[in-house]
Design a protein that fits this description.
Blueprint lengths: L3 E2 L2 E2 L4 H20 L7 H9 L3 H15 L3 H14 L1 H8 L6 H15 L6 H14 L8 H12 L3 H29 L5 H29 L10 H28 L2
Helix pairs in contact: 1-2, 1-3, 1-11, 3-6, 3-8, 3-10, 4-6, 5-11, 6-7, 6-8, 8-9, 9-10
Length: 260
C-alpha cells in the first residue's frame, strides 16, 4: 500500500529496490556476455541501465552497517560470497579484476576503520586510503568506496544523501564521458567535435541511472524491509540477494557458451 509522509511518497521497501537492482545488473551483465556487438546501441543501453545497481548496493551497504545485528557476521557473509563469486565472475566477464561483492567487502572494511574510535584520526584515514587503493583491481573500482564514504557522511539526512548521489553521478558520468570519447576516436573512428559530443551524451546517459537511484532512495524508499510472515521467507530474502550474484553470472556464462 502506498503511504504519503512529510518526506514524500514512500512506496518501495528495501527488498523491492534490491530486486529492481538485480534486474538492472542482470541486463548490464547480459550486454557483456550474450550480445554479439558489445559496442552496439542495445549493449550500451543495457550497460547504462545497469549503472543503477552499484549505487543502490553501496547505499544499502552503509545502511546495513548501521542497522545489522552483527557487523562481524555481515562482513563474513560479504567475504564468503565474494570468494564464491570469483570463478563465476571470471568465467562470465573475464578480465583480471575481482567481483563487486569483493568491492563491497572492502568498502565494509573502510566503514569499520572509519568508525573505529580506538584508532587515531590519521590512522583511520591512512587505513581507509589503503583499502580504497585495493579497489582499483575490482569491479567499480574507486567509485564504490567514494560512494560509500559519501553515503556514510550523509547518512540520516535526505538532503545530504541526495547531494551524495548527485556528486557520485557527476564523477561517474565524467569518467564514462572520457571513456566513450576514447571509444569514439579509436573504435567508432569519429573525429573532432563528433567524438566530443558522443562522449558527453554517453556520459550523461551513464550518470542518469545513478541519479535515478538517488531519487528512488531519497523519495520512494520507505526505510523498511519487505514484510513476510515466515522465517523461511525472511531467510530466502536475505540469502537470495547474495546467491543471485554468482548464480546469474554462472548462468550467463553457460548461455554464452551455447547461444553465442
Amino acid at each position: 500500500m502506498q503511504t504519503r509522509t512529510e518526506n514524500g511518497l514512500r512506496c518501495l521497501n528495501r527488498d523491492v529496490i534490491k530486486y529492481a537492482a538485480m534486474v538492472t545488473m542482470f541486463l548490464n551483465h547480459l550486454a557483456h556476455t550474450l550480445l554479439s556487438d558489445p559496442y552496439g546501441s542495445l549493449a550500451i543501453v543495457f550497460e547504462d541501465i545497469g549503472y543503477f545497481t552499484a549505487p543502490v548496493m553501496c547505499y544499502f551497504l552503509v545502511e546495513g552497517f548501521f542497522y545489522t545485528h552483527s557487523r562481524k557476521n555481515y562482513g563474513v557473509r560479504l567475504f564468503a560470497f565474494s570468494m564464491i563469486s570469483i570463478v563465476p565472475y571470471y568465467l562470465a566477464l573475464g578480465g583480471n579484476q575481482m567481483n563487486m561483492i569483493w568491492t563491497l567487502f572492502l568498502c565494509f572494511l573502510i566503514l569499520v576503520v572509519l568508525h573505529n574510535d580506538s584508532l587515531r584520526p590519521e590512522s583511520r584515514m591512512l587505513y581507509a586510503a589503503g583499502l580504497c587503493v585495493l579497489t582499483f583491481w575490482s569491479d567499480w573500482g574507486i567509485f564504490a568506496p567514494v560512494m560509500v564514504i559519501l553515503f556514510d557522511r550523509a547518512f540520516g539526512s535526505r538532503k545530504k544523501t541526495l547531494a551524495a548521489f548527485a556528486v557520485s553521478a557527476a564523477l561517474y558520468g565524467a569518467d564514462c564521458a572520457h571513456a566513450y570519447y576514447t571509444w569514439a576516436l579509436y573504435i567508432y573512428d569519429y573525429t573532432g567535435g563528433r567524438a566530443v559530443t558522443f562522449g558527453l551524451v554517453q556520459g550523461i546517459l551513464a550518470a542518469l541511472p545513478v541519479l535515478l537511484a538517488g531519487l528512488v532512495i531519497c523519495f520512494l524508499y520507505s526505510g523498511k524491509k519487505m514484510q513476510v510472515r515466515t522465517k523461511g521467507a525472511r531467510a530466502f530474502n536475505r540469502w537470495f540477494f547474495y546467491a543471485f550474484y554468482p548464480a546469474h553470472l554462472l548462468v550467463l556464462y553457460l548461455l554464452s557458451r551455447t547461444v553465442v
